[in-house]
Write a structure and sequence with these properties.
The structure holds two protein chains of two kinds. Chain A has seven helices and no strands. Chain A is an all-alpha fold. Chain B has four domains: 70 residues; 58 residues, no CATH class; 58 residues, no CATH class; 141 residues, Collagenase (Catalytic Domain) (3-Layer(aba) Sandwich). In chain B, strand 2 and strand 3 form a beta hairpin. The chains are: A mainly alpha, B mainly alpha. Chain B: Pfam families: PG_binding_1 (PF01471). Chain B: This is Putative peptidoglycan binding domain-containing protein.
Protein backbone atom coordinates (compact mmCIF):
# COMPACT_ATOMS: atom_id res chain seq x y z
CA UNK A 1 0.00 0.00 0.00
CA UNK A 2 1.35 3.38 -0.96
CA UNK A 3 2.34 5.67 1.88
CA UNK A 4 0.23 8.66 0.85
CA UNK A 5 1.16 10.69 3.88
CA UNK A 6 4.88 9.98 3.61
CA UNK A 7 4.83 10.83 -0.07
CA UNK A 8 3.11 14.15 0.53
CA UNK A 9 5.52 15.04 3.30
CA UNK A 10 8.53 14.14 1.18
CA UNK A 11 7.29 16.31 -1.67
CA UNK A 12 7.06 19.32 0.63
CA UNK A 13 10.35 18.57 2.34
CA UNK A 14 12.15 18.30 -0.99
CA UNK A 15 11.95 22.07 -1.46
CA UNK A 16 13.63 22.75 1.87
CA UNK A 17 17.31 23.18 2.67
CA UNK A 18 18.77 19.89 3.75
CA UNK A 19 19.33 21.07 7.31
CA UNK A 20 15.61 21.77 7.73
CA UNK A 21 14.11 18.64 6.25
CA UNK A 22 14.48 16.43 9.28
CA UNK A 23 12.96 18.99 11.62
CA UNK A 24 10.15 19.71 9.17
CA UNK A 25 9.20 16.06 8.89
CA UNK A 26 9.38 15.59 12.64
CA UNK A 27 7.08 18.54 13.31
CA UNK A 28 4.58 17.51 10.67
CA UNK A 29 4.45 13.92 11.90
CA UNK A 30 4.05 15.17 15.47
CA UNK A 31 1.11 17.28 14.39
CA UNK A 32 -0.46 14.56 12.26
CA UNK A 33 -0.21 12.10 15.13
CA UNK A 34 -2.67 14.23 17.05
CA UNK A 35 -5.42 13.57 14.51
CA UNK A 36 -8.21 11.10 15.20
CA UNK A 37 -8.61 7.99 13.15
CA UNK A 38 -11.49 9.75 11.43
CA UNK A 39 -8.90 11.77 9.55
CA UNK A 40 -7.64 9.10 7.24
CA UNK A 41 -4.53 9.20 5.05
CA UNK A 42 -6.27 10.96 2.18
CA UNK A 43 -7.57 13.64 4.48
CA UNK A 44 -4.17 13.95 6.10
CA UNK A 45 -2.68 14.52 2.68
CA UNK A 46 -5.10 17.38 2.16
CA UNK A 47 -3.98 18.86 5.46
CA UNK A 48 -0.34 18.49 4.49
CA UNK A 49 -0.81 19.96 1.05
CA UNK A 50 -2.36 23.05 2.58
CA UNK A 51 1.25 23.88 3.41
CA UNK A 52 2.25 23.72 -0.25
CA UNK A 53 1.19 27.33 -0.67
CA UNK A 54 3.66 28.36 2.00
CA UNK A 55 6.98 29.48 0.49
CA UNK A 56 9.80 27.07 1.27
CA UNK A 57 11.55 29.70 3.33
CA UNK A 58 8.58 29.86 5.71
CA UNK A 59 7.62 26.21 5.64
CA UNK A 60 9.51 25.17 8.74
CA UNK A 61 7.80 27.90 10.74
CA UNK A 62 4.46 26.76 9.31
CA UNK A 63 5.21 23.23 10.42
CA UNK A 64 5.94 24.52 13.91
CA UNK A 65 2.57 26.28 13.94
CA UNK A 66 0.87 23.16 12.63
CA UNK A 67 2.34 21.03 15.38
CA UNK A 68 1.53 23.63 18.00
CA UNK A 69 -2.05 23.95 16.82
CA UNK A 70 -2.54 20.22 16.76
CA UNK A 71 -1.16 19.99 20.29
CA UNK A 72 -3.44 22.79 21.47
CA UNK A 73 -6.37 21.15 19.75
CA UNK A 74 -5.81 17.90 21.57
CA UNK A 75 -5.47 19.68 24.90
CA UNK A 76 -8.69 21.53 24.11
CA UNK A 77 -10.53 18.33 23.35
CA UNK A 78 -9.34 16.78 26.56
CA UNK A 79 -10.44 19.85 28.43
CA UNK A 80 -13.83 19.61 26.79
CA UNK A 81 -14.14 15.98 27.79
CA UNK A 82 -13.14 16.94 31.31
CA UNK A 83 -15.88 19.54 31.47
CA UNK A 84 -18.43 17.09 30.15
CA UNK A 85 -17.45 14.56 32.78
CA UNK A 86 -17.59 17.24 35.47
CA UNK A 87 -21.06 18.26 34.30
CA UNK A 88 -22.13 14.63 34.66
CA UNK A 89 -21.11 14.76 38.30
CA UNK A 90 -17.95 12.68 38.10
CA UNK A 91 -14.95 13.48 40.28
CA UNK A 92 -12.37 14.69 37.82
CA UNK A 93 -10.31 16.97 40.05
CA UNK A 94 -7.15 14.90 39.68
CA UNK A 95 -7.55 14.81 35.92
CA UNK A 96 -8.08 18.55 35.93
CA UNK A 97 -4.88 19.13 37.85
CA UNK A 98 -2.89 16.95 35.47
CA UNK A 99 -4.35 18.58 32.41
CA UNK A 100 -3.84 22.07 33.81
CA UNK A 101 -0.17 21.28 34.36
CA UNK A 102 0.15 20.11 30.76
CA UNK A 103 -1.59 23.19 29.48
CA UNK A 104 0.62 25.47 31.53
CA UNK A 105 3.67 23.70 30.16
CA UNK A 106 2.39 24.26 26.66
CA UNK A 107 1.68 27.90 27.46
CA UNK A 108 5.25 28.35 28.63
CA UNK A 109 6.57 26.88 25.40
CA UNK A 110 4.35 28.56 22.84
CA UNK A 111 4.75 32.04 21.47
CA UNK A 112 1.82 32.31 19.06
CA UNK A 113 -0.76 34.65 20.61
CA UNK A 114 -3.73 32.93 18.99
CA UNK A 115 -2.72 29.52 20.27
CA UNK A 116 -1.88 30.90 23.69
CA UNK A 117 -5.33 32.42 23.83
CA UNK A 118 -6.91 29.06 23.11
CA UNK A 119 -4.74 27.43 25.73
CA UNK A 120 -5.78 30.14 28.15
CA UNK A 121 -9.37 29.09 27.53
CA UNK A 122 -8.55 25.52 28.34
CA UNK A 123 -6.64 26.49 31.47
CA UNK A 124 -9.67 28.46 32.59
CA UNK A 125 -11.83 25.40 32.03
CA UNK A 126 -9.56 23.30 34.22
CA UNK A 127 -9.59 25.92 36.93
CA UNK A 128 -13.35 26.02 36.67
CA UNK A 129 -13.48 22.31 37.42
CA UNK A 130 -10.99 22.70 40.26
CA UNK A 131 -13.10 25.49 41.72
CA UNK A 132 -16.01 23.09 41.95
CA UNK A 133 -17.92 24.96 39.30
CA UNK A 134 -17.89 28.33 41.00
CA UNK A 135 -15.11 30.10 39.13
CA UNK A 136 -15.11 31.74 35.73
CA UNK A 137 -15.40 29.54 32.70
CA UNK A 138 -14.58 29.88 29.03
CA UNK A 139 -17.32 30.52 26.47
CA UNK A 140 -17.15 26.95 25.28
CA UNK A 141 -16.90 25.70 28.83
CA UNK A 142 -20.02 27.60 29.77
CA UNK A 143 -21.91 25.62 27.19
CA UNK A 144 -20.40 22.28 28.05
CA UNK A 145 -20.77 22.67 31.79
CA UNK B 1 -45.51 79.37 19.28
CA UNK B 2 -44.70 76.55 21.54
CA UNK B 3 -41.06 77.49 21.40
CA UNK B 4 -41.73 81.11 22.38
CA UNK B 5 -43.82 79.97 25.31
CA UNK B 6 -41.07 77.68 26.45
CA UNK B 7 -38.52 80.47 26.40
CA UNK B 8 -40.92 82.70 28.27
CA UNK B 9 -41.36 80.12 31.00
CA UNK B 10 -37.61 80.02 31.47
CA UNK B 11 -37.29 83.79 31.94
CA UNK B 12 -36.48 84.78 35.52
CA UNK B 13 -39.57 86.03 37.33
CA UNK B 14 -38.09 89.44 37.98
CA UNK B 15 -37.20 89.93 34.38
CA UNK B 16 -40.66 89.05 33.18
CA UNK B 17 -42.28 91.40 35.64
CA UNK B 18 -40.02 94.26 34.56
CA UNK B 19 -40.62 93.42 30.95
CA UNK B 20 -44.36 93.84 31.32
CA UNK B 21 -43.97 97.24 32.96
CA UNK B 22 -41.57 98.49 30.33
CA UNK B 23 -42.81 101.61 28.47
CA UNK B 24 -43.48 101.29 24.80
CA UNK B 25 -40.55 103.55 23.94
CA UNK B 26 -37.84 101.19 24.99
CA UNK B 27 -36.02 100.25 21.87
CA UNK B 28 -33.22 102.78 22.31
CA UNK B 29 -30.78 103.67 25.10
CA UNK B 30 -33.50 105.47 27.06
CA UNK B 31 -35.31 102.20 27.58
CA UNK B 32 -32.16 100.50 28.72
CA UNK B 33 -31.37 103.25 31.17
CA UNK B 34 -34.88 103.00 32.57
CA UNK B 35 -34.48 99.28 32.92
CA UNK B 36 -31.13 99.60 34.62
CA UNK B 37 -32.55 102.11 37.11
CA UNK B 38 -35.62 100.01 37.74
CA UNK B 39 -34.31 96.47 37.73
CA UNK B 40 -30.56 96.80 38.12
CA UNK B 41 -27.72 95.86 35.83
CA UNK B 42 -27.94 92.12 36.29
CA UNK B 43 -31.62 91.82 35.46
CA UNK B 44 -31.21 94.13 32.47
CA UNK B 45 -28.36 92.05 31.18
CA UNK B 46 -30.42 88.88 31.56
CA UNK B 47 -33.34 90.48 29.83
CA UNK B 48 -31.23 91.65 26.90
CA UNK B 49 -29.87 88.17 26.46
CA UNK B 50 -33.31 86.62 26.51
CA UNK B 51 -34.71 89.38 24.33
CA UNK B 52 -32.11 88.58 21.73
CA UNK B 53 -33.25 84.99 21.74
CA UNK B 54 -36.89 85.98 21.49
CA UNK B 55 -36.12 88.45 18.72
CA UNK B 56 -34.20 85.79 16.88
CA UNK B 57 -37.05 83.38 17.30
CA UNK B 58 -39.47 86.01 16.06
CA UNK B 59 -37.45 86.43 12.95
CA UNK B 60 -37.15 82.77 12.27
CA UNK B 61 -40.81 82.14 12.94
CA UNK B 62 -41.54 84.83 10.39
CA UNK B 63 -39.16 83.03 8.07
CA UNK B 64 -40.97 79.76 8.33
CA UNK B 65 -40.37 76.25 9.56
CA UNK B 66 -37.08 75.76 7.75
CA UNK B 67 -35.60 78.79 9.41
CA UNK B 68 -36.95 77.62 12.76
CA UNK B 69 -35.27 74.29 12.32
CA UNK B 70 -32.04 76.04 11.41
CA UNK B 71 -32.28 78.30 14.45
CA UNK B 72 -32.74 75.28 16.66
CA UNK B 73 -29.67 73.68 15.13
CA UNK B 74 -26.85 76.16 15.78
CA UNK B 75 -23.34 75.05 14.88
CA UNK B 76 -21.38 74.31 18.04
CA UNK B 77 -17.83 73.40 18.86
CA UNK B 78 -15.61 72.79 21.87
CA UNK B 79 -15.31 75.88 24.00
CA UNK B 80 -18.85 77.11 23.32
CA UNK B 81 -21.16 77.75 26.25
CA UNK B 82 -24.78 78.66 26.84
CA UNK B 83 -28.33 77.39 26.35
CA UNK B 84 -27.60 75.71 23.03
CA UNK B 85 -24.83 73.69 24.62
CA UNK B 86 -27.18 72.77 27.46
CA UNK B 87 -29.73 71.62 24.92
CA UNK B 88 -27.01 69.62 23.19
CA UNK B 89 -25.98 67.96 26.43
CA UNK B 90 -29.58 67.13 27.27
CA UNK B 91 -30.04 65.61 23.83
CA UNK B 92 -26.88 63.55 24.17
CA UNK B 93 -27.95 62.34 27.59
CA UNK B 94 -31.25 61.22 26.13
CA UNK B 95 -29.28 58.84 23.96
CA UNK B 96 -27.16 57.63 26.83
CA UNK B 97 -24.17 59.97 27.05
CA UNK B 98 -24.44 60.64 30.81
CA UNK B 99 -22.90 64.12 30.62
CA UNK B 100 -23.04 66.73 33.34
CA UNK B 101 -25.47 69.33 31.99
CA UNK B 102 -23.35 72.40 32.71
CA UNK B 103 -23.83 74.29 29.41
CA UNK B 104 -20.10 74.06 28.73
CA UNK B 105 -18.87 72.34 25.57
CA UNK B 106 -15.85 70.66 27.11
CA UNK B 107 -13.82 67.61 26.22
CA UNK B 108 -16.41 65.14 27.54
CA UNK B 109 -19.16 66.76 25.52
CA UNK B 110 -16.94 66.77 22.46
CA UNK B 111 -16.14 63.10 22.95
CA UNK B 112 -19.83 62.30 23.37
CA UNK B 113 -20.67 64.21 20.20
CA UNK B 114 -17.93 62.43 18.27
CA UNK B 115 -19.07 59.03 19.54
CA UNK B 116 -22.66 59.77 18.63
CA UNK B 117 -21.65 60.94 15.16
CA UNK B 118 -19.51 57.87 14.65
CA UNK B 119 -22.32 55.56 15.69
CA UNK B 120 -24.87 57.25 13.48
CA UNK B 121 -22.89 58.00 10.37
CA UNK B 122 -22.93 61.79 10.80
CA UNK B 123 -19.87 63.49 9.33
CA UNK B 124 -19.80 67.21 9.98
CA UNK B 125 -17.77 69.34 7.62
CA UNK B 126 -15.81 70.87 10.47
CA UNK B 127 -14.76 67.48 11.79
CA UNK B 128 -15.95 64.94 14.31
CA UNK B 129 -16.96 66.47 17.61
CA UNK B 130 -18.32 69.64 16.09
CA UNK B 131 -22.06 70.01 15.90
CA UNK B 132 -23.82 70.80 12.67
CA UNK B 133 -27.43 70.67 11.54
CA UNK B 134 -27.20 67.00 10.60
CA UNK B 135 -26.02 66.19 14.12
CA UNK B 136 -28.97 68.04 15.61
CA UNK B 137 -31.30 66.20 13.26
CA UNK B 138 -29.89 62.87 14.32
CA UNK B 139 -30.15 63.79 17.99
CA UNK B 140 -33.78 64.82 17.59
CA UNK B 141 -34.44 61.40 16.19
CA UNK B 142 -33.25 60.05 19.50
CA UNK B 143 -30.13 58.57 18.03
CA UNK B 144 -31.91 56.96 15.16
CA UNK B 145 -30.16 58.76 12.37
CA UNK B 146 -29.52 55.54 10.59
CA UNK B 147 -33.13 54.48 10.88
CA UNK B 148 -35.64 55.64 8.44
CA UNK B 149 -38.56 57.74 9.57
CA UNK B 150 -39.68 57.95 6.00
CA UNK B 151 -42.01 55.45 4.45
CA UNK B 152 -40.54 56.41 1.10
CA UNK B 153 -36.99 55.51 1.94
CA UNK B 154 -35.85 52.61 -0.12
CA UNK B 155 -38.98 52.76 -2.24
CA UNK B 156 -38.63 52.16 -5.93
CA UNK B 157 -41.76 54.05 -6.87
CA UNK B 158 -41.57 57.45 -8.47
CA UNK B 159 -42.89 60.67 -6.99
CA UNK B 160 -44.68 61.59 -10.19
CA UNK B 161 -46.26 58.20 -10.72
CA UNK B 162 -47.43 57.49 -7.20
CA UNK B 163 -51.13 57.90 -6.38
CA UNK B 164 -52.14 61.50 -5.86
CA UNK B 165 -53.36 60.81 -2.33
CA UNK B 166 -50.01 59.31 -1.32
CA UNK B 167 -48.16 62.26 -2.80
CA UNK B 168 -50.47 64.63 -0.96
CA UNK B 169 -49.87 62.76 2.28
CA UNK B 170 -46.13 63.13 1.93
CA UNK B 171 -46.63 66.84 1.28
CA UNK B 172 -48.83 67.12 4.35
CA UNK B 173 -45.98 65.85 6.47
CA UNK B 174 -43.65 68.36 4.89
CA UNK B 175 -41.91 66.24 2.30
CA UNK B 176 -41.27 67.35 -1.25
CA UNK B 177 -40.43 65.57 -4.48
CA UNK B 178 -36.78 66.04 -3.59
CA UNK B 179 -36.94 64.96 0.04
CA UNK B 180 -39.57 62.22 0.29
CA UNK B 181 -36.92 59.51 0.36
CA UNK B 182 -34.64 61.47 2.65
CA UNK B 183 -33.57 60.16 6.03
CA UNK B 184 -33.94 63.59 7.54
CA UNK B 185 -37.60 64.17 8.23
CA UNK B 186 -39.27 67.52 7.72
CA UNK B 187 -40.58 69.47 10.67
CA UNK B 188 -43.62 67.29 11.14
CA UNK B 189 -41.34 64.30 11.50
CA UNK B 190 -39.73 65.91 14.52
CA UNK B 191 -43.00 66.46 16.35
CA UNK B 192 -44.45 64.01 18.86
CA UNK B 193 -47.45 62.20 17.51
CA UNK B 194 -49.70 64.03 19.95
CA UNK B 195 -48.78 67.36 18.43
CA UNK B 196 -49.61 66.39 14.88
CA UNK B 197 -52.67 68.01 13.43
CA UNK B 198 -55.64 65.87 12.48
CA UNK B 199 -54.67 66.22 8.86
CA UNK B 200 -51.08 65.24 9.54
CA UNK B 201 -52.16 62.22 11.58
CA UNK B 202 -54.46 61.09 8.83
CA UNK B 203 -51.67 61.42 6.31
CA UNK B 204 -49.24 59.58 8.55
CA UNK B 205 -51.74 56.78 9.06
CA UNK B 206 -52.31 56.39 5.32
CA UNK B 207 -48.54 56.23 4.83
CA UNK B 208 -48.35 53.32 7.21
CA UNK B 209 -47.49 54.88 10.53
CA UNK B 210 -49.20 54.00 13.76
CA UNK B 211 -48.95 56.05 16.92
CA UNK B 212 -46.35 53.57 18.14
CA UNK B 213 -44.33 53.45 14.97
CA UNK B 214 -44.29 57.22 14.77
CA UNK B 215 -43.00 57.45 18.31
CA UNK B 216 -40.45 54.71 18.00
CA UNK B 217 -39.51 55.62 14.46
CA UNK B 218 -40.17 52.11 13.31
CA UNK B 219 -39.79 51.78 9.63
CA UNK B 220 -42.87 50.12 8.28
CA UNK B 221 -41.26 49.19 5.01
CA UNK B 222 -37.72 48.06 5.78
CA UNK B 223 -38.78 45.65 8.47
CA UNK B 224 -35.47 45.70 10.30
CA UNK B 225 -36.54 45.36 13.87
CA UNK B 226 -33.43 47.03 15.25
CA UNK B 227 -34.79 50.42 14.47
CA UNK B 228 -37.60 50.14 16.91
CA UNK B 229 -35.44 49.70 19.96
CA UNK B 230 -33.54 52.95 19.93
CA UNK B 231 -36.04 54.89 22.02
CA UNK B 232 -36.29 52.14 24.61
CA UNK B 233 -32.53 51.98 24.88
CA UNK B 234 -32.21 55.71 25.16
CA UNK B 235 -34.81 55.83 27.92
CA UNK B 236 -33.11 53.08 29.87
CA UNK B 237 -29.73 54.72 29.55
CA UNK B 238 -31.12 58.07 30.61
CA UNK B 239 -32.72 56.52 33.64
CA UNK B 240 -29.58 54.67 34.64
CA UNK B 241 -27.13 57.49 34.14
CA UNK B 242 -23.32 57.36 34.00
CA UNK B 243 -21.67 54.10 33.08
CA UNK B 244 -23.66 51.82 35.31
CA UNK B 245 -26.20 50.94 32.73
CA UNK B 246 -28.81 48.23 32.63
CA UNK B 247 -26.81 45.57 30.92
CA UNK B 248 -29.39 44.57 28.38
CA UNK B 249 -29.62 48.06 27.01
CA UNK B 250 -25.98 48.73 26.25
CA UNK B 251 -26.50 48.27 22.59
CA UNK B 252 -27.40 44.64 22.98
CA UNK B 253 -31.08 45.20 22.34
CA UNK B 254 -30.26 46.65 18.99
CA UNK B 255 -27.63 44.01 18.42
CA UNK B 256 -30.17 41.33 19.19
CA UNK B 257 -32.66 42.88 16.84
CA UNK B 258 -30.16 43.14 14.05
CA UNK B 259 -28.99 39.59 14.52
CA UNK B 260 -32.58 38.39 14.73
CA UNK B 261 -33.38 40.21 11.52
CA UNK B 262 -30.62 38.28 9.81
CA UNK B 263 -30.75 34.88 11.50
CA UNK B 264 -33.87 34.89 13.63
CA UNK B 265 -35.50 32.19 11.56
CA UNK B 266 -32.72 29.81 12.51
CA UNK B 267 -32.10 30.50 16.14
CA UNK B 268 -33.66 31.90 19.25
CA UNK B 269 -31.43 34.92 19.65
CA UNK B 270 -30.14 35.22 23.17
CA UNK B 271 -29.82 38.67 24.66
CA UNK B 272 -26.39 39.28 26.11
CA UNK B 273 -25.82 40.79 29.51
CA UNK B 274 -23.38 43.62 28.96
CA UNK B 275 -20.70 44.99 31.25
CA UNK B 276 -18.84 48.16 30.47
CA UNK B 277 -15.23 48.29 31.56
CA UNK B 278 -12.57 50.93 31.42
CA UNK B 279 -9.43 50.33 29.44
CA UNK B 280 -7.58 49.35 32.60
CA UNK B 281 -10.40 47.11 33.81
CA UNK B 282 -10.59 45.55 30.41
CA UNK B 283 -6.94 44.64 30.40
CA UNK B 284 -7.08 43.30 33.91
CA UNK B 285 -10.20 41.29 33.26
CA UNK B 286 -8.89 40.02 29.96
CA UNK B 287 -5.63 38.80 31.37
CA UNK B 288 -7.27 37.48 34.47
CA UNK B 289 -9.77 35.61 32.42
CA UNK B 290 -7.35 34.06 30.00
CA UNK B 291 -4.50 33.85 32.45
CA UNK B 292 -2.11 33.64 29.57
CA UNK B 293 0.56 36.19 29.07
CA UNK B 294 -0.08 39.70 27.97
CA UNK B 295 -2.41 40.58 25.18
CA UNK B 296 -3.36 43.86 23.68
CA UNK B 297 -6.73 44.71 25.20
CA UNK B 298 -9.49 43.93 22.79
CA UNK B 299 -12.84 45.59 22.59
CA UNK B 300 -14.84 42.88 24.15
CA UNK B 301 -15.06 39.20 24.88
CA UNK B 302 -17.71 36.83 25.98
CA UNK B 303 -18.43 34.73 28.95
CA UNK B 304 -21.84 33.28 28.52
CA UNK B 305 -24.18 35.00 28.74
CA UNK B 306 -22.20 38.11 29.58
CA UNK B 307 -20.18 40.29 27.28
CA UNK B 308 -17.58 42.79 28.37
CA UNK B 309 -17.07 45.91 26.35
CA UNK B 310 -14.37 48.50 26.52
CA UNK B 311 -16.25 51.66 27.37
CA UNK B 312 -13.58 53.86 25.87
CA UNK B 313 -13.96 52.40 22.42
CA UNK B 314 -17.43 50.91 22.28
CA UNK B 315 -19.06 50.67 18.90
CA UNK B 316 -22.28 49.03 17.82
CA UNK B 317 -20.31 46.52 15.79
CA UNK B 318 -18.51 45.34 18.88
CA UNK B 319 -21.77 44.66 20.63
CA UNK B 320 -23.01 42.75 17.62
CA UNK B 321 -19.77 40.83 17.40
CA UNK B 322 -19.82 39.80 21.03
CA UNK B 323 -23.54 39.07 20.90
CA UNK B 324 -22.86 36.73 18.01
CA UNK B 325 -20.41 34.91 20.25
CA UNK B 326 -23.21 34.47 22.74
CA UNK B 327 -25.35 32.88 20.06
CA UNK B 328 -22.37 30.83 18.90
CA UNK B 329 -21.77 29.39 22.32
CA UNK B 330 -25.30 29.47 23.55
CA UNK B 331 -28.15 28.72 21.22
CA UNK B 332 -26.42 28.52 17.89
CA UNK B 333 -25.53 25.05 16.84
CA UNK B 334 -24.03 26.11 13.54
CA UNK B 335 -20.48 26.45 14.75
CA UNK B 336 -20.79 25.88 18.46
CA UNK B 337 -18.73 22.78 17.93
CA UNK B 338 -16.00 24.81 16.30
CA UNK B 339 -12.67 23.37 17.22
CA UNK B 340 -10.70 26.52 17.72
CA UNK B 341 -11.20 30.02 19.01
CA UNK B 342 -9.69 31.26 15.77
CA UNK B 343 -12.48 29.71 13.77
CA UNK B 344 -15.10 31.16 16.09
CA UNK B 345 -13.50 34.58 15.92
CA UNK B 346 -13.19 34.50 12.19
CA UNK B 347 -16.74 33.32 11.62
CA UNK B 348 -18.10 35.82 14.10
CA UNK B 349 -16.18 38.62 12.47
CA UNK B 350 -17.53 37.74 9.08
CA UNK B 351 -21.06 37.53 10.43
CA UNK B 352 -20.64 40.84 12.21
CA UNK B 353 -19.70 42.47 8.95
CA UNK B 354 -22.67 40.83 7.30
CA UNK B 355 -25.07 42.01 9.98
CA UNK B 356 -23.65 45.51 10.17
CA UNK B 357 -23.62 45.92 6.43
CA UNK B 358 -27.18 44.81 5.99
CA UNK B 359 -28.73 46.33 9.05
CA UNK B 360 -26.68 49.23 10.30
CA UNK B 361 -23.90 50.77 8.28
CA UNK B 362 -21.06 49.82 5.96
CA UNK B 363 -18.24 48.08 7.73
CA UNK B 364 -15.89 50.60 6.23
CA UNK B 365 -16.94 52.60 9.27
CA UNK B 366 -15.41 49.96 11.50
CA UNK B 367 -13.08 51.91 13.78
CA UNK B 368 -11.31 48.95 15.27
CA UNK B 369 -8.44 48.27 12.97
CA UNK B 370 -6.53 46.78 15.84
CA UNK B 371 -9.29 44.32 16.63
CA UNK B 372 -9.65 43.31 13.03
CA UNK B 373 -5.90 42.84 12.76
CA UNK B 374 -5.93 40.67 15.86
CA UNK B 375 -8.75 38.53 14.56
CA UNK B 376 -7.09 38.18 11.18
CA UNK B 377 -3.90 37.17 12.85
CA UNK B 378 -5.71 34.52 14.81
CA UNK B 379 -7.69 33.40 11.85
CA UNK B 380 -5.02 31.69 9.83
CA UNK B 381 -7.24 29.22 8.10
CA UNK B 382 -7.53 30.03 4.44
CA UNK B 383 -10.72 28.08 3.96
CA UNK B 384 -12.72 29.90 6.58
CA UNK B 385 -14.62 32.06 4.17
CA UNK B 386 -15.66 29.14 2.06
CA UNK B 387 -16.75 27.24 5.11
CA UNK B 388 -18.66 30.21 6.34
CA UNK B 389 -20.42 30.35 3.01
CA UNK B 390 -21.30 26.70 3.35
CA UNK B 391 -22.56 27.04 6.90
CA UNK B 392 -24.65 30.06 6.21
CA UNK B 393 -25.66 29.63 2.64
CA UNK B 394 -29.23 30.89 2.64
CA UNK B 395 -28.77 31.87 6.24
CA UNK B 396 -32.41 32.69 6.84
CA UNK B 397 -33.33 29.13 5.94
CA UNK B 398 -31.84 25.93 7.23
CA UNK B 399 -28.08 26.17 7.41
CA UNK B 400 -27.74 22.42 7.36
CA UNK B 401 -29.48 22.33 4.02
CA UNK B 402 -26.95 24.83 2.83
CA UNK B 403 -24.08 22.75 4.06
CA UNK B 404 -25.43 19.53 2.67
CA UNK B 405 -26.07 21.23 -0.64
CA UNK B 406 -22.49 22.39 -0.61
CA UNK B 407 -20.88 18.97 -0.11
CA UNK B 408 -19.21 17.06 -2.88
CA UNK B 409 -20.85 13.81 -3.94
CA UNK B 410 -19.93 10.90 -1.74
CA UNK B 411 -19.46 12.97 1.39
CA UNK B 412 -22.03 12.99 4.12
CA UNK B 413 -22.84 15.63 6.63
CA UNK B 414 -21.59 13.35 9.38
CA UNK B 415 -18.24 12.93 7.66
CA UNK B 416 -17.89 16.63 7.12
CA UNK B 417 -18.76 17.39 10.69
CA UNK B 418 -16.40 14.72 11.99
CA UNK B 419 -13.53 16.29 10.09
CA UNK B 420 -14.38 19.71 11.46
CA UNK B 421 -14.67 18.29 14.94
CA UNK B 422 -11.26 16.67 14.52
CA UNK B 423 -9.78 20.00 13.51
CA UNK B 424 -8.98 18.85 9.99
CA UNK B 425 -10.33 22.01 8.46
CA UNK B 426 -8.49 21.80 5.18
CA UNK B 427 -9.76 18.27 4.69
CA UNK B 428 -13.28 19.36 5.58
CA UNK B 429 -13.04 22.21 3.15
CA UNK B 430 -11.93 19.83 0.45
CA UNK B 431 -15.24 18.01 0.86
CA UNK B 432 -17.14 21.12 -0.11
CA UNK B 433 -18.14 21.88 -3.62
Amino acid sequence: MTDLVGGALDRLAADLPSDQRGRFLELMRTGLAEFDAVVGPEDQVVEIEAAADVPPGERLAAAERFAAKRRAFTLGRRSGELLTAFAEGRDVAADAERLLAEIETALAEMRDDGIRRELGDYATECRYVLSGGTGPNSPRGSKLA
Amino acid sequence: MAVTAAVSRRLPTTTRRVSRRRPSRTAGPTGLLWLQRTAGNAATSRLMTQRTIVDDLGRVLAGGAAALKKALSPPLKAGDTGPSVLSLQQSLNRVGAALIEDSIFGTRTKAAVAAFQRDHGVRPARGAGTVDEATWDALRLGGRATASAVPGQGSTESWAAMPAQRRADFRTLGYTAATWRSKTPPLAGLLPYALLSEKQRAAATRLGYTRESWRANRDTTAGTAAKGFAAEEAAAKRKAGARVLPAKYVGSLRAKAMIAAEFGADVDIQLAKVHLLTEAEMKKAYEGYYGAGSYTPINGFTVKPDIYLNNSSIWAGTTVHESLHVQEHGTWDAFAYQPTSAFGEGATTILTELVMTRHEQPVTHHPYAAEVALVRKMNTHAGLDKMRAAYFQGATGDYRTGVTGGLKPGTTWAQFRALVDAGALAAAQARLK
